[in-house]
Structures are given as structure tokens and as C-alpha cells.
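in:
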């Protein structure tokens, strides 16, 4: 697998406060990697360090064979967290301006711009000025600006924020397609459902440090224990006494039983007490969203054992 980006032992402090430490991960050609973490975890600091917007105090960044300060950042596609394009410039002019900044042939850029505007439902908007667009439309233009020059590495900081569900789907499909064509994608997002559908690997930061690093499959296998949801009138203490039940959450007449990792589902089902009230019954794995919430709220202390795959 061809490594496009390698981040090694990245560390950064602001004044005396350590913001990130020992951040190491890689992104391969054609792969979608997610950087996740609660607000203030250090995602944007990591991304800005890669983009050379801020300089890390420790560690190395490599893009193909280029090292740290020698990285040709104009070759990377970047959608920053802070949105905003020049307001009184026309859509096509801004896209061509970005292409020019990135040394990309203008004729080709114009064709690509028209193709993407059409794809994103902005056909005919090329001569409209940015201030006349809605926020979501502006975000689509900014996304096009980040890929106009066919970057081999695309870094997207919160690409889905502020988008309606339909536009989120459009972005998701486009990111998937770019990766299929070979683009290495690094994205940060709080939309766990989209991350789960889209990403090949994830890197989860909490308080500036790595908590989980692995493929989506590995993370699910390792951290997404089974949960059993029972619709019915049941006493919480009775459910808590069932073997292999870690904890129970109850809302009205719905109980969610979080099961221990080593549970064997067929055996567990056989030993359930026969006087449980069951109107509806499901067993599934907890979602990435639940794993994230558990880590962010300290219910799951993963500590140093987070490395699944390097
Ligand atoms: N220029 C700065 N000066 C001082 N502290 C900063 C600066 N930039 C970021 N920080 C601090 O670094 C920490 C990490 O911020 P960062 O923006 O990287 O988090 P994040 O994971 O991207 O969060 P969010 O999900 O809220 O965007 C925060 O505590 C933030 O206050």
C-alpha cells in the first residue's frame, strides 16, 4: 500500500499547555481516514500542523517523499474548518483563482469546475457572486475549490457541518468516489454515522492523545460490544443480575442491556430467565457514536491500549 501522508510523534503546546502529544498515523493512497475526537481534542491543531499553518514543536510530517517544511502544500487539497470565500467574486472566478494558486492548467480547471457545479446542483451559477449563494451552496463551492487541482491528498476539516442531509449524502458519495480513484483522504467529523459508512480507518484523539487507531472493522470488533434491546415491562435489577450484563439503561418500557465483550450470544440467549416480558427484542453491536460518547464521557477507559493497526 502506497503511503501518501505519514505523521510521526506530533506534539504541540500553546504557552505552557500541551495540546497534542505523540500523534502518529498514516494515510494511504485511495484510503479514507477519519480523525475523530470531542471538541477541543486537538483535531484541527493536527490538521493545521500538516498544512503548515502552524508549526508543531515535535514530530515529523511526510507527504510522499517530502518532509515537514519542504512539503509542497499547494499540491494538497484542503477544506479548512473556518468557511468563507471572497464575497463579491463570481463562482467561476474564485474556482479559477484557486486553480491558479495551485499551478493547475486553467482550461482544465474550467471544465472541472463546470462538471462539479453540475454534479452539486449548482449548474448555471458560475457567474453568480458568492454573496448571493446560500451557506450550503457556498460550502459546495469551497469543496470544489479544494479538489479543483486533482490533489493526491485531500484534507477535509468538518466537511459535513452546516449541510442538510441531502447535501451530506452528495459530499459523502463524492468523497467515496475520489478515494476510489486513488485520492488519499483525511477528514475530521462529528457525524459518526457518516464516518461509519465512509471511512476505512479512524484515529480517535482525546485530550490531545491517541485513544483508538485502526480499521473500522477492527474498532468495531474490539470496542463495539453487543447490546440487547428489550421492549417490555421489566425490573431493572432483575435485568442487571443476568450473566454477562455490564450495565442496563432503561427508558419507559425499553431496556438496553450492554453486554460484556466475551459474551457468546447463542449461549447467552439460552440462559435468559423465562419470565422476562418481551414485546420486542433485538441484539446488535453498539454504534461508533456510542463508542465515541463512552470515551468522551470517560465510561470507557481505553488508555494506552488503543493501537489496533499502524
Ligand atoms: N491558537 C491557539 N492558541 C491557544 N490555544 C489554542 C489555539 N488553537 C487551539 N487551541 C487550543 O487547543 C485545543 C485543541 O483545539 P483544536 O481546535 O485542535 O480542537 P478540535 O479537536 O479541532 O476541536 P473542535 O471539535 O471543537 O473543532 C483547544 O483546547 C483549544 O483551545
Amino acid at each position: 500500500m502506497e503511503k501518501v501522508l505519514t505523521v510521526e510523534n506530533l506534539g504541540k503546546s500553546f504557552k505552557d499547555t500541551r495540546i497534542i502529544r505523540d500523534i502518529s498515523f498514516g494515510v494511504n493512497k485511495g484510503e479514507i481516514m477519519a480523525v475523530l475526537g470531542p471538541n477541543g481534542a486537538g483535531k484541527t491543531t493536527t490538521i493545521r500542523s500538516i498544512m503548515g499553518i502552524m508549526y508543531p514543536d515535535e514530530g515529523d510530517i511526510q507527504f510522499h517523499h517530502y518532509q515537514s517544511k519542504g512539503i509542497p502544500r499547494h499540491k494538497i487539497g484542503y477544506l479548512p474548518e473556518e468557511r468563507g470565500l471572497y464575497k463579491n467574486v463570481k463562482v467561476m472566478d474564485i474556482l479559477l483563482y484557486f486553480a491558479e494558486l495551485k499551478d493547475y492548467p486553467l482550461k482544465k480547471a474550467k471544465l472541472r469546475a463546470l462538471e462539479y457545479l453540475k454534479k452539486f446542483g449548482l449548474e448555471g451559477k458560475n457567474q453568480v457572486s458568492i454573496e448571493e449563494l446560500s451557506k450550503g451552496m457556498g460550502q459546495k463551492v469551497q469543496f470544489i475549490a479544494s479538489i479543483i487541482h486533482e490533489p493526491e491528498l485531500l484534507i477535509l476539516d468538518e466537511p459535513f457541518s452546516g449541510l442538510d442531509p441531502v447535501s451530506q449524502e452528495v459530499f459523502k458519495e463524492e468523497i467515496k468516489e475520489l478515494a476510489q480513484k486513488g485520492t488519499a483522504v483525511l477528514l475530521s467529523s462529528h457525524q459518526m454515522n457518516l464516518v461509519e459508512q465512509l471511512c476505512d480507518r479512524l484515529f480517535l484523539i482525546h485530550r490531545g492523545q491517541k485513544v483508538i487507531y485502526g480499521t473500522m472493522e477492527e474498532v468495531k470488533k474490539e470496542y463495539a460490544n453487543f447490546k440487547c434491546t428489550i421492549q417490555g415491562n421489566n425490573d431493572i435489577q432483575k435485568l442487571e443480575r443476568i450473566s454477562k450484563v455490564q450495565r442496563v439503561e432503561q427508558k419507559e418500557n425499553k431496556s438496553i442491556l450492554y453486554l460484556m465483550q466475551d459474551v457468546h450470544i447463542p449461549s447467552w440467549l439460552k440462559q435468559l430467565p423465562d419470565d422476562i416480558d418481551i414485546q420486542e427484542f433485538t441484539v446488535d453491536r453498539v454504534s461508533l457514536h456510542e463508542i465515541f460518547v463512552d470515551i468522551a464521557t470517560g465510561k470507557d477507559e481505553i488508555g494506552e491500549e488503543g493501537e489496533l493497526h499502524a
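note: The chain has three domains: 1-64+152-217, 85-149, 225-285.
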